[in-house]
TrEMBL record:
PANTHER family, alphabetized: RECOMBINATION-ASSOCIATED PROTEIN RDGC
UniProt entry tagged with the keyword Cytoplasm: yes
Cellular component GO terms, alphabetical: bacterial nucleoid; cytoplasm
Species of the source: Aromatoleum tolulyticum
GO biological-process terms attached to the record: DNA recombination; regulation of DNA recombination
Protein name according to UniProt: Recombination-associated protein RdgC
């Protein structure tokens, strides 16, 4: 059980949800496969394949959203409807009107849906009720929104907020690159993306390339700002930090996974639990460290500040509950 990406949200202090209450509320919307006329269905699955929707290890919770979608391209429906419209035109002596075409498309859709292939996927979310974190293993905020939307539909209350820091990730990453030094506890790796703030959006990407020296600084001086930067924390976890405070390409290094081998888990369930415990333990250290490297969490309605005189534009995060 190792997350590859992390979309991060804050659970405010005072959220009184218990694991038992969460289990009960998630059960309102258990996953049910698509019926013959369903194009998509979403609901909660057991993360471990048993009857429980909330998996608990050491005070940390794991939930999983199941999504199933019928693979029926609109172009296929359109083509079949047009072919039937041509045959209908020959029979009635005139082309079908707008309402007839709409009815034809609906008829084709209803006939083809039961025979369409389905695609199923599972999205995991980690909840740290003590530390106040919700992390979704999704490569983008749009994918994470699938989980948040169903959570909003399922739970009585979900007062989540985006993480807001004193320094924007863009500003902080620019300072680290300009100074050639990462914040305490971190090292700068060899992947980076710099993008111009001008209309042309010119971008430079470095992959497995040293980032110290005048070349990268020259791009910063020319007005390009970092949108992605690869970092390693405490020689234990490597990741890519993005301008939107996303954690991507999350990789728990050998020194962490060696601990898993030492656990001596005898079955798949024990191995799963040991991996989840190790992962969440590392994330409980990593996330506060990243927030600290960005100047700490923003208080009140203050706006993020630029560091080192580097100008940047940042999208304000909403504090409104989801």
């Amino acid at each position: 059980m190792w997350f590859k990406n992390l979309q991060i949200y804050r659970v405010p202090a005072g959220w009184t949800m218990t694991a038992e209450a969460l289990e009960e509320q998630l059960a309102r919307k258990r996953f049910v496969p698509c019926g013959s006329q369903d194009q998509e269905t979403r609901g909660w699955l057991s993360p471990t394949g048993d009857e429980f929707l909330v998996h608990r290890v050491g005070g940390q919770w794991l939930i999983a959203l199941g999504l199933e979608q019928k693979l029926l391209p609109s172009s296929v429906v359109k083509q079949e409807a047009e072919e039937r419209a041509e045959a209908l035109a020959e029979q009635q002596g005139y082309k079908p009107g707008r309402k007839q075409m709409k009815d034809l498309r609906e008829q084709v859709l209803q006939e083809l849906l039961p025979r369409a292939f389905t695609r199923r996927r599972k999205v995991f979310a980690w909840i740290d009720p003590t530390g106040g974190w919700l992390g979704i293993d999704a490569p983008s905020q749009a994918r994470a929104e699938d989980v948040l939307e169903v959570l909003r539909q399922t739970l009585d209350t979900l007062p989540l907020a985006l993480v807001r820091t004193e320094l924007s990730p863009t500003s902080a990453m620019a300072d680290w690159l300009a100074g050639g030094e990462a914040p305490a506890g971190f090292t700068i790796d060899q992947d980076c993306e710099l993008r111009s703030v001008t209309e042309d959006k010119a971008a430079v990407r470095y992959v497995r390339h040293p980032l110290e020296g005048d070349e990268v600084r020259g791009h910063l001086t020319a007005g390009k700002l970092p949108t992605r930067l690869a970092l390693t924390f405490d020689d234990r976890v490597s990741f890519v930090l993005t301008e939107k405070f996303e954690i991507k390409r999350l990789d728990f290094l050998d020194v962490v996974k060696e601990n898993l081998d030492q656990q001596g888990a005898e079955d798949a369930r024990a191995l799963f639990d040991a991996g989840f415990a190790l992962m969440t333990g590392e994330l409980q250290r990593l996330l506060p460290a990243v927030v600290g490297a960005l100047g700490g969490e923003l208080k009140g309605g203050d706006a993020p500040a630029a560091a080192g005189g580097v100008a940047f534009a940042t999208e304000a995060a909403s504090d409104a509950p989801f």
